[in-house]
Please model this.
Amino acid sequence: MSDLTTTVSRYLDIWNEADADKRAAAIAELFTADAPYIDPLAAVEGHAGFAAVVAGARDQFKGLGFELHGAVDAHHDQARFQWGLVTEPGAEPIAIGFDVIVTDAEGRIKAVYGFLDKVPAA
Model:
């Protein structure tokens, strides 16, 4: 089994990558081709679908970053973790979410299920 904490770190790195080509390469490396990404705001499948969700979030929250909040809780081929959307590292998050990733035998993400715990005021 792969190190799921490292997988989570790589997953969050994708959300923080400004370069679309680098993001696409990282997604192709980390995700299976048909992996679904499902959260309260999106339900997509595959590399292009996930890339579009990330691009939309990056556009909506320009200059902000995603960081891990707390420890990754993992067993078998799944991990759950909380993340925060911050103005700078260590700052109070303006948004907080909780994601669950499921990986395949090679450690690639085969599904992501996300929840929003705190959202920015409109």
